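Q: Protein A?
A:
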Amino acid sequence: MSVSPFRIDVPDAVLDDLRARLARTRFTHRSGDRPWQGGTDPDYLRDLVSYWHDGFDWRAREAALNAYPQYLALVGGRKLHFLHVRAARPAGVPAPPPLLLTHGWPSSFVEMLPLVDRLTSPTGGAFDVVVPSLPGFGWSELPDEPLTRAVLARTLHELMTDVLGYQRYGAFGGDVGGVVTGWLGALHPEQVAGIHMIHPPFPASFDARPLSPAEQAYLDAEAAYDETDGGYSAIMGTRPDTLATALADSPAGLAAWLVDKYRDWSDNRGDLSNSFDTDTLLTIITVYWVTGTIGSSFRQYADFDHNTPRPQITVPAAFTVSHEPSQANFPREIAERACTDIRHWSEPGRGGHFMPLEEPDLLAAELRDFFTSLRP
């Protein structure tokens, strides 16, 4: 398969257009009497847009991203962007399984960089690490078929095996990346050494046995939470083109849509700066903007009804459960319905939906310990 080195090089004209649009932003008024009551707070957004226009240095961030070896590969006839960072291992040290680290929504490969730095070092386990941009995100193209979990898993498995030549590998992810990680373990148990997730999986069906009180309580709480949080997925799944038109035309609108979830889903205790620095947030948002991929990032939601039930996961599994509203009191027995071989379960009580950015030391240590235990 065709593989070529890749460097991010956003044309000056794209950045000039971005700044011009930011300078013309029309802001709204707060809809409630408390900040963030109605979503991204207009005062916060005004400050963010001002810094994006006047202080944010994309070229410096671009250079930092390009310090990581990046590639484009043709997988299934479509371009897939990925990082491939090989570890420097001391002579005689057995290699742990290479790791595939997969982001979710509304994120990008940028989320995984703190883990790359830690896991490729000799003290971090000396893993070879592969970080793709999911199809429809960044510089990765969408397939011609519906973007189901099985299609995503097939694409990433081909990357690891056919393109990069790994016979066995470990997989980690959160959000959609975690769902795909589960599918990889279910579909390719002979080549996936193990999986690690921060969002434990549901079974394909709850029919095997009656729900326990803890399971029923969790499912009820999740349904209640979706009543206040699920609007974003409903509109992305049913009216993706309408929403994407607005967000692809307004960088401030794009920032508001993404920041809303970074605040709601991270373990920030009411202040985004407790979880993310502004430059990191704007790097992720700018990747969406300069690639024009906010609309294609919705495809997984729009194509959701094409998914089929996932087979049971039989490979070794580990979970570091994120500390966010949707995961509160997640009972292990739900994951045990989906996985037959859970080797590790921890609830650290910190680190939210974007744990690789929020708690990289904690998560890297858990990944290192689990995957090094799976050496042949």
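Q: Protein B?
A:
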Amino acid sequence: MFALRRILLFVPVAALAACSVVAPPYSASVDNIQALKNASPVATRLGAFTNDAADGDHSSVQLRANSMRSPVGDSFAQYLSSALQQELTIGGALSPDAKVELSGVLLKNNVDANIGTATGTISARFIVKRGAEVRYDSVKTATTQWDSSFAAAIAIPRATQEYPLIVQKLLASLYADPAFMQAIH
């Protein structure tokens, strides 16, 4: 009887330990928007953003025993596309009838909520085309670190809060590339 009570107590705790969380919605970076406005006039439209099949489908990110899912579509490639759409729209650089198209491939998407120091890395290939001509093709990577806790109840929410900031950093590196800005002019 005592063993049964232990099992009944352990099952809900184990179920809670392996929950799925949703990444916070992307919030456009003021610095990124200003970079786009400073490069004005630029105009582009968004093409497809896909996942690199070699690195998995990027439908979720493991955070210890939890998994984090994208709030946009069914993958983090769509999250990245949505982030770009927000910033390009606010920055006045998105036009559905632009001759220049920006597309991409999410190559790496990892958040490691280690005890002590957690890290996050995002890598994507960005491609700018005018018609069939490729004007820009480059891989950008953003990595960041933050303090993390032993307690998952603290570490997991902190890791999910950091995720949009990693995406902001990735897009900042894209906008800081003069070749990219020239390609979307």
